[in-house]
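Try it yourself: sequence plus adenosine-5'-triphosphate, in.
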Amino acid sequence: MKESEIILKTILEVNNINKKVGKKSLLSNISFSINSSDIVGLIGPNGAGKTTIMKSILSLLKIDSGEISINGQNINYTSHHGLHEIGALIENPSLYPYLTGMDHVRMYTHKRKNVSKETMHIINELNMGKFINLKVKKYSLGMKQKMGILIALLNNPKLVILDEPMNGLDPKSNVELRNLILSLSKKGVSFLISSHILSELEIIVNRVVIINHGKIINKSYVNDLLSIGNTYLNLKTSNNSKSILLLNNKDFKTTTSEDGTFQIKLIDKHSIEQIFQLLYRNNIKIIDFYKSGSTLESSLLKAIYN
Ligand SMILES: Nc1ncnc2c1ncn2[C@@H]1O[C@H](COP(=O)(O)OP(=O)(O)OP(=O)(O)O)[C@@H](O)[C@H]1O
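Structure, out:
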């Protein structure tokens, strides 16, 4: 989708922010914005400045110049206006070891008794029912991470900032988190997410901001960045010829290869989901698959090292 086609409300505006510590410049002329429903990936190598940007937005760090506004309200570091619209998980969640997960929920939502339907929905979606009533000192790394994500999502934030949310999550939990983020985004919630797991990020984000040495080196819509059309899914299934027929009937371009796999040209970011669903509905098993061509990882490496 082209930027001009989107007429949505701007939730976050970061305008030309700069931050130095001593002589070292941590952020230089950073500008970007986030609209409602956007899922923006903030990506870059270690030490690029991702956490510094997130902390600046959250007033946890004071910038030297520039402006940040949330839902039209300027962040000025001495007032809470605007900040209540944001939920965040930065680095590790700070949790009280002798309280249960549910105690945390009640405390952060100021509810003594009934927890809201929306909160229960998030607890279920993140599969936290089994441990939400246990004391946090008994939680594993992944459980603590889910707790941090849950806290970030409490009280219906308009913008959710997640710094490496997949840290410590197992593959099933990653899928749960991904589905939850996508469903909340459909309801208008915006996300700014940093992650080094680019294959995971690639599935959910619609835009990326690539940062290196405290500077933005690329701001793109994912579809543009990946120049879809140069991306392929390579598949081996229980019935390749039937799969190819089904896919061709759905206007996917396929080419066979001698190693028993076939290649499908991806049309947009929903293509993989559509392909898997089509095969699943026709009882065709996927034996092996991998992506080739442009990926978020190859685009990031190209942006940084070319
Ligand atoms: N308080 C500070 N004083 C001096 N330098 C700092 C401070 N905080 C961060 N830095 C430096 O700022 C740069 C950006 O750090 P930041 O944590 O924002 O990077 P990042 O992109 O989040 O990295 P990672 O992917 O490793 O988490 C790094 O070079 C870091 O050493």
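One thing you can check immediately is this: The chain has ten helices and 14 strands.
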